[in-house]
Every structure is written in C-alpha cells, then in structure tokens.
Amino acid sequence: MEEPREDTRVTAGFIEDCKTLINKFEECDDIRFQDFCEVWHSMKFSAIFTGRQSYVEMLEFCEDALQDAKSFLKPPCRFKTQIGCLYLLYALYYKQPCEDVKIRFTYSEWKELKELHNTLKTGNHVDANYVLSKMIYDDAFVHTAYENEYGFEKYLRSKGIQFANPYSLIPALNDTVEQKRLFSRIGKIGDFYNQARCMPTNEIPEKAREKFDVTAYTDFVKELKSLRDRRIPVKNHSSDDYYYPAWKDQSSDEKSKIAYITRKFLPIILALVFVSVAIAANASRGGPGRRGGGHSRNPNRNEESEAALRAASLRQVTVVFRHSHRTPADTYPNDPHINSKLEPYGWGQLTNEGKLAAYNQGLWLAKRYGPFLGTEFSTDIFQLQTTAVDRAQMSGMLTSAGLWVPKGTQLWKSNLKWQPTPIKYQELDQDTLLLVRTDCRAYYRELDAVKNDTEYQQVQAENKQLYDELTALTGMSISNPDDIMSVYGTLRAESDLGLPLPDWTKDYYPDRLVPLTIYSYLPLVKTDLLKRLKGGPFVKKIVNDMKGKVAGTEKKKMFMYTGHDSTITNLLGTLGVWDPQQPEYGILTTIELHENAEGWNVQLFLRNTTQRVPYPLTVPGCDTVCPLDKFIELLTPVIPVDWEKECQIDDDSYVAPTPLPP
After folding, report:
1. Structure pTM?
2. Which partner from 299, 341, 404, 650 sits 20 to 30 angstroms from 265, CA to CA?
C-alpha cells in the first residue's frame, strides 16, 4: 500500500493557519474589516512571509498562499466565511513582498465572485464591497483556463518527483501523457483554441491561425508513448520501485530519438500552451462581462493588427473621459494651504502631470482608432465637446492634440506638431448634457427620497462619529458622503502636488475616506427616474447619433466628450455598467458602433486609468457584443422623451438645492 506523500509545498501548514484565522473572525460580533484586522494582528499573521530562503521560494509561497486562501471563498462556505476570505486575500495580496503575483480565477469562479459582489452591494456591506472593488480595480485577479498552473516545473514539484539523474525528463514525461494528466489537459486547451480560431467573428490574425498545428499535441504524446514502450524498466534494488535508465544508459539511437523529439515538438507544445491559455483567459474575461477592475491582458499583443481589425467593422465611436490631474478645486476652513495661490497653476487647474497625461491619452486613442479615423483631421468626421470648466476644456484640447498630430499638408509649422481643433461647450447653468445642471426639480425630489430610504440612512448612522470627528478637524460641516468626497478630493490633489498634509490626516486619508467617496456617486443614478433625468439626456444623444449613422444622415466618425467624475459615473450608471470604484483622473469609456454580416452592434469599454488597457462592459440583459436594436430596447426606460416636461412637478413649494460644484 502506498504511503501518503508528505506535503512538500512551501505553504505546508498554511491552510491550517488560515482556518484558525477565519474561525476566530467568525466568532466576532460583526463583519467589519476592523474586526478582521484585530484577529490578523493578534495572530501576528504578517510573519508568514518571513523565513524564506530565496526569492524563488518566496515567489512560490506567495503564489500558493493566494491559491490556498481562495478555497474559503467557494460555495458552500458560509457568507461570513466568504467575507473573511475576501479580507484574507486582500491582506495577503497587498502585504506580499513579491510584485505582480495575482490571484488565479477561472470562468466559473469569476461568475461566483461576481454573484458575491452583487450580494455585497445590495446588502450594503461597505467594507467588503470596498475591499473587493479595490482588488478588481487594481487588477489583483488574473483570468485563467484552469484553477491551477500547469507547467513542467510546477507539475513535477507538486508530484514530489526527484531523480538520481537530473538530466532525464523522460521518467516524468511518462506520467504526464496518461489520461487526465498534464498533456491531456493541455490538449483540451488546444481544442478550445482550435474552436476559437474557427469562429467567424474572432480577432485572431490570419497569420496566427496558419501557425497553429492542430496535431502538434497528439503527435508529441504519441512519440513519447512510443519511446516509452520501447524501453525496459530496471529494478531499483534499494527499494521496490522500478525506474527507467538515465541518459548515460541510453543507446546512441535512443539519445538521438529523444533529442529529435524534444527539438521538434517541445517548442510547438510550449507555444501552444502559452497561446492557448492567453486565448482562454481572454474568453474568460469577456464571458462574465467583467467591469470595475482590472483585467488580464497580453502585453505582447499586436496593437496595430488589433486596431486594423477593429476598423474593419467600426462605424462610429463615442469617447467620454474625465479631465486629467488637477490642483485642489475647493478647500476647508482649517486647510493650511487655504491662502496659497498654488502657483504656477491656480485653483482647480491642470497640472503639468495632467497636461502630459491628457496628451498621451490622445496618442493612445490615435493608436487604437487611427486606422478607422485616418490621419487627416476634419470637422466632418470629428467633434469635441467639453464642459465650461477650464480643466475639462484644457484636457479636451490636449487629448485632441495627441489624437490629431498634423502630418503632410496639415503640418503648418515644422517644429510644432500641433493643430487646433474646434471645441463646443455649454455654460454651466445651461448644461443639459455632461453635467445637467439646469433646473430639474423632479430629479432632486427623487434624490431626496433616495437619501431618506433605509439604506442611505443606515450609512449615515454608521458614519456619524466619522462625520463629527472630521467636522472638528476640518472646521467645515461634514454630514454626508458628498462632504467626505469634497475633503478627499482636496487632500488627494494637495498630496499629488507634494504639499504637506496636516498630521491628523494620517488617521483618515485615504483609507477611511475612500469607501464613502465611492459610495457618494451611487445615489445619483440609483432609480430609473434618476437615471432618466440625469444620465438620460447624454444616452439619448449617443443613441440618436448611432441611429443617424445607421440611416446615413450622420457622417461623423468620432464624438469626443470631456467632463468630470460625475460625467462618467452618471453615464455608466445610467447604462447599468458602473461598478463602484474611484473614478480616477482621465478615466475613459468608449461606446463603439459596429457593423458586420449579422447587422449593427454596440460594444462598450472602460479604461479606468491612463495606465491600463480598456476592458469590455456588458449592459445588463445583453452580451458584450450587443445588437443595436436590443441595446436601444434595454435603455428605453432611462431615455427621456421630453426632458423639460418630465422635470416638472406639481408641488410649487419644493425648492431644489443648489448643484454641487463640478
């Protein structure tokens, strides 16, 4: 009878420590993150990263620790256990000393995680929702075809295989070719890739399809089995095991055969593994309609080929983004910088960092949409609209400058690679599109009702002490999430400028302010009526532009809009695709109208910082590639017919509040 193999992994015993930690957390009266932190510190859990003998061992430990900890997240684990697991993954991920070790999630696991995320949001579990949202936003998860990593090194290590001859892989490969083993699973990935490459709507370049050999996997395994069957096992006299002769015991013919097989097939198999997993990961990412965070991506992807493929079916694109990095737009009475002129910029203006980021975003748009737009600027194909705020207008002009770098006959000064583009805007008190600050009493009355409901009042009650503390520290009245957002925005901008923050901020900024700042955007478009009156006019404009393109009456290829954080959150909230997160400077969404053999379709993408690639969004009730008719049908309830009439109410005594500054 085979004795159980000793656990040789570097995380041996770690899973028991996790059980102990989560059990102690479950004994707490609440599920707040603070309770988890107390258990973490009492167990000195951070010490798990100590005692590793090398970076390689530390890297392996971090990979396996995140994978082991994830096991407490899966059904049928209790809800409180899952919350504890989220906190544990959060702590491990941000405490790990290795960079860029991510948490592996398969397609089915990601669907379960999204269901848990929805439960956290609907149940108003602020701490857990913030923890998960931040991990998604920071790309803590990587989408994979299988739960565990497959590769020779990882596989042999997990099997505990050691050989007297370190140069012979054949004994180990013998085990991998059997049914349900390593190459069997790699074969399934190969089958998946073969199916994907045959789909008529896929984006795999033709040259890449030609390079793929469907029979490579089966030929390789067949050769290995053939070689194995011609070899004679030798009795190991020091034990009851058998082993295969090592390299030095092979005949010259066998040596040549091994070398030939390795040289011929191993590069193909390795290429198959990497390409197939990348394709499978991409499918997993699109499948669940991932929002919020970050996403798995292939850094070696040919952007030019991708842009060319997109241009083949793209007919129109709407680009909407927040202005870039700025100085503080407002302040508070006890602010030590309240009397500063913030030279050389002034209050609420773009910084040099912001100017460069906005221009670079334009260069990125040119790379993504250049084959579609062409290289020559024309008002017939491009329109830029911003709010009336300086930083939005400057961001729009800089992004447009990066998008339309003059070439050829449009280069009007040899040492100045810039050309002007027209800009449209509405005065703030007349804004009916990007900020919607015109009088709409029906909207504010509905918003008052939302803020008086149980959920919002519970948030208020839970944070009353925080409000009182910040009121005393800032010298301004802090009574709701909007006030928290104001303080956070000021401290964030001052910190970005390198200005010293007061000592008291160390206990509050950013960690205790971020969750309520994120929450402050949610009530604004919580109900269909709020969506219809706030984000509805913008959605109506986008839909009408699409209809015009289909009818042949609209010639423009790109509509570009530059606004503010609320511009993005209100638009995406109205579309039903906004996951709670901090809308960073330059956050950008694109709404693409495509035409292919099956008709017209709409595709949405979000680039939540200028440092990340965009990821697809899925409108509830549709697919990532959403037929235009279905897209319009789903959004009809949030598109106003007569906005001015719908904003009227019968109660003449109701006075709408003054809109917050942008």
Report:
1. 0.61
2. 299
